[in-house]
Specification:
The structure holds two protein chains of two kinds. In chain A, 71% of the residues lie in helices and 0% in strands. By secondary structure, chain A is mostly helical.
Chain lengths: 271, 326
Amino acid sequence: MRIYWALFKTELQSHLQYRIAAVAGAVTNIAFGFFRIFLLTAFYGASQGKQPMSLSDLYSYVWFGQVLFGVLPVTGMLSSDSEEIRTGDVAYRLTRPVSLYGFYFARVVGQKVTALCSRSLIQVVLLLTLLPLLGLSRYGMGSPAWGFLPLLALSLVLTILLSAAIHTFVYMTGFWTVSTRGSSSLAYAVISLFSGLLVPLAFFPGGLRTVADVLPFRGVYDTPARLYSGTMSPAEALGGLGHQALWLAVLVALGVFLARRGTAKLEVAGG
Amino acid sequence: MSCITVKHLSKTYRIAKRGRGVGGALKGLVRREKREIHALRDLSFSVEEGEILGYIGPNGAGKSTTIKIMGGIMRPDGGECTVAGRIPWKDRIAHVRGIGVVFGQRTQLWWDLPAVESFRLLKTMYRVPEARYRGNMEELTSLLSLGPLLDTPVRQLSLGQRMRCEIAASLLHGPEVLFLDEPTIGLDANAKIAVRGFIREYNRKRRLTVILTTHDMDDIEELSHRILVLHEGEIIYQGDVAGLRRRAGESRQLVIDTEGEAPIDAVPGVEAAEEDGRVTFRYDAARTDVNAIISAVTASRRIVDLVSGSEPIERIVARVYRERGA
């Protein structure tokens, strides 16, 4: 375990250096946040029916996703790590007395935590200072539902781990597809839709909503976002955490399995 | 005592064959034809403890495949292999604890961090006790003059500096065997000399077994106790450098700088090439008398200067490859 902790720390150290990139990422995410918010506000204005979410909850939901963007399994999917199987650098990894899956998983967790400590933090500061200055406070992020805070903290930890598990799973497909570009784009599309990033899951029609509820992807965004705004019953909250934990276990197991099969195949096919 | 034994090792790759052009690519979507490539055929050799083995051969000869098998990365199709008493592919993690690997064309250091951070991480990975880590680190720092490099981010190091760090990284845990895959590739003359000097010294001090793959014949001549020449998955020469020279015949090279334009009469059995008045003759000293060449030159031109010597080892090796390839 110490090994993976050390790997995580090294990755954290190595990525925290990119200050400008963090600021640029934060600014981009805020710009897209406004885009999403104006779009959804217009949609609310054009519709007569009762909406599943109040406007202020909706803004919190959107901003939560933007703040967390660097942590989601849609960011950094095409990093140099993902190409290591194609370039053959994976050979070096295999000369280490460490599980291959654990190696990449620890690294991705390091990258995700870096994003949380830099990009997300900068965004929160910008949102809290910039919006009131620009007179845009009414579009801002509401305060969290304090009662859910401990659950939210736990859920965020699971979000990071689940996100890393999805990432690493995609990396491992490289053993079969050589380049992970295809699987990354596919993952990007599926995750954007089923995590709630494109349209909040609350707006999904019945059947599609059930699919989204079962799939793992709501665990990286919808669950913690709703815990933040408090639009969940305590039972739903616990169910959400259970869903995150269960999928984490399943995806890690699958990833480890792929890594095993992949290295065995690599032994057969050559690198 | 043998440190590495390889017996009847074989490895075949199946590679998808593709037709040419768009038509071929379309056909490949439906039906994939597989082509077999025999990377290793019945390969057997052994390496003694403390020996530096120069492992050479043209690209695609099977060198990397052998290294990957010995390094526990790949499983052979058939044959046996033990490295320091272990079968590499049986338990990869236990095996790699006892070996060091440097791939000259890749990096194992964290690009954005000072080298010392990578070293610390490797220390944790290999569970090297603090005291031993300090001792090894001190020795490697002095032998490789790493002092001023340790705190510089790796991306700011020159290739030569980086390679010295890479080599240190592969030895921190005190492996029994070191695999060096083209450790001097791309380095300038001084950096090459530094790397070679270190390998020689460390091998002598620690009795470390080294497998050295390279295309640089100076690496081979200066470092290896024994060489193994591989061609299409088979060993075509095994022995010392002097033996390879003997096998290539009493092959000599005579370079003469001449004055004049007149053609020089050909001498039977002698290969000659001219460039700007400098004529290079290659001949077999057992069959041709050097006087015959000099007479032929002086008959039409004046000699300004001449140098004679053995044919460079890379030419000999190239010829051995060619003879086998033909």
